Amino acid sequence: MQLSNGENAEPKSSRFALWQLGFRPFYLLASVFAALSIVLWAAQYLGWLNTGYLPGPLWHAHEMLYGFTVAVMAGFLFTAVRNWTDQPTPTGGWLMAIAALWICGRVLIVTRFAWLSALANAAFPIAVAIGIAIPLVRSRNRRNYFFIALLVAFGLATFYVHAAQILGWQTPAWLGIRVGLDFALLIMTIMAGRVIPMFTANAIPGANTRRHLLVERASIASVFLLTALDALGVDGALLVTVLVLAALSHGVRWWLWAPGKTFRTPLVWVLHAACAWIPIHLALRAASALQLVALPLATHALMVGAIGGLTIGMMTRTAKGHTGRPLRADAADSVCYGLILAAAVARVIGPLLLPAAYGAWVLISAALWSGGFALYALRYSGPLTHSRVDGRPG
Question: Any residues with CB less than 8 A from the CB of 201 and at least 6 apart, and which?
């Protein structure tokens, strides 16, 4: 959703504003972390680094989901909920404390203090849930209560990952990653349906985007069902059937949004390109369940392609709108989009075409991803830390 508009291109004030609204610290922290953590993961992948009590692949998955993705969600929701409710969300000292909790989670997870890490990582999404629950309940904005529940669910899921690993439970820690990814997919499915057709219609006259009620309901219901099956550990024919139906419904839904009309509008095109990875992810998961492809390809189609593409697209859009800048992607933005989506192609399509070079594809994808988010951090560090160019609060 278009949260704000702006017209001026140059700042009128250099006043420090990092703690004035949630998107500011969390977009900056998430982009820096996205760039640096993948460098650390590449070092771990090459055997140069020990990542603590979580094994390397589990640490990597946890940090991309419960570190990076949930931080972006926090920044977006703190900003969007204020707009939806006309009520304050955390700013100032309260926002600083929540950001400090997130930083503690990132540091503790690579130490020997496993239970402190578990508590900090579980507390962060719950703190964000409290931060949005107060304005949502005050304004009786029941339509968005599900965000509160999903953030609490993220907290429980990440705690499960840590507890299962520390205590050596029979059910694997990876179950918490799988279900957490489903939660993220559910949020993307709901929010994309709300905003992408609207963004497309507003930005591109004659785009003729369509939202078919049955397709919308089928897409959302399929992800709810998939989440339930994953939480219960169901596999086999039922899981494959749900995945295939989900892939079909999401593919039809995406096509109805007229992606072919968006190529000349990068700020919209990147969101369509990211959403294209959702049916790809679901189809690859079905193929993986049939032992036709490796599961990590499906996982990275979601994490790098869909989540990475949607986050970089929304991070540029909201940062521009809420710092009073025009909602137009510049050359640097387009480079960011290209790098992240190229990282998805390298990580998913590359190994399918040339499996013998799997390790090289992993490192190429890591470099592209890090480059895209590093460029975002450099490009937006000024706008995110300084007051709006139009003089408005926020």
Answer: 207, 209
Q: pTM of the prediction?
A: 0.93
CB-neighbour burial class of residue 151 (10 A; exposed 0-12, middle 13-18, buried 19+):
buried
Burial class of residue 390 in the structure, from the number of CB atoms within 10 Å of its CB (0-12 exposed, 13-18 middle, 19+ buried):
middle
With contact defined as beta carbons under 8 Å apart, do 164 and 173 qualify? yes
Phi and psi at 16, nearest 5°, equal -65, 130
The beta strand positions in the chain, using DSSP E, are: none
Asked if 147 contacts 132 with a C-beta cutoff of 8 angstroms, the reply is yes
pLDDT digits (tens, 9 = 90+) for 282-300: 999 999 999 999 999 999 9
Q: What is the pLDDT of residues 142-187, one digit of tens each?
A: 999 999 999 999 999 999 999 999 999 988 999 999 999 999 999 9
What distance separates the 2 farthest-apart alpha carbons in the chain?
60
How far, in Å, CA of 6 to CA of 322, rounded? 8
364 CA to centre of own chain: 21
Taking the C-alpha atoms of residue 1 and residue 128, their distance in angstroms, rounded to an integer, is: 20
